[in-house]
Design a protein that fits this description.
The protein is mostly beta strands and about 280 residues long. The chain is about 5% helix and about 50% strand. Strand 1 and strand 2 form a beta hairpin.
Length: about 280
Amino acid sequence: MVLKKFAVLGFALLTICASGSAIAQGTPDPATPPATEPEAWKAPFGGTFTAGFGFFNDYSYRGISQTQLQVAAQASVGYETAAFSENVPLSAYIGGWGSNVYFPNTGTIAEIDLLAGFKLKTLQDKLTFDLGYIRYNYLGAPSNLFYDFNEFGLVAGYDFGVAQLSAALRYSPNFYANSGIAWYKWAQLTVPMPFIKVNENVAFKAYANIGNQYIERFANYGIPADNYWDWQIGLVVSVYGFDLSAAYTDTNIDIAGCANTLNCQGRVIFGVSKSF
């Protein structure tokens, strides 16, 4: 995920936003917002299924590349229940998200995340809250590297019509690579652009976000201080159901603090994705 993925083995990190999907991330914040809301499939017990896939020229997790600036293929699947009652607009969800990663000489081949939580939608769905849990799993990684970890989070958002504002707070009791307590604070502004008219099958949306990652045992994680900032600004164009995205992402970690690599430096990430 971050620098210590390779530093723990005594060699330089060549590699990481939910979005990060940052762009090209599904589970973590910040995630690239679709230009249009995807339709959901009807599922048992009044719930809905969702799924998606995407291809990107990098997988950035909180500003740091997880693929050493190389391409990433990602997929997701989820199920959300219907609201528990007419008077309680609360639902539950479970899901999964996955991507290839590249951590040389570790045997790690993929990140598979498992999700579960509750969503509350009120004020005609304009105000939303998401209380969730994520289990990060790294396939092929030796157990003594302690890559797998748990994270809990609260995401709140409000749709003002002309823009949507979201904020999140995420907590891990023992973050990646046995790096101790971690907190991630994040905010995102998304602006639909209906004034750009092509036809009914094309829509535009711009967004910007900023986050701060705190890590207790930051040396285990491989960064030079106990916290760092990441930020991103991007554009998403929905074209006949496919989302084409481009975003500039960066951190305040310099090259020396990133194991003498460019994996924490500013770059543009392009992608194409599809939600079902």
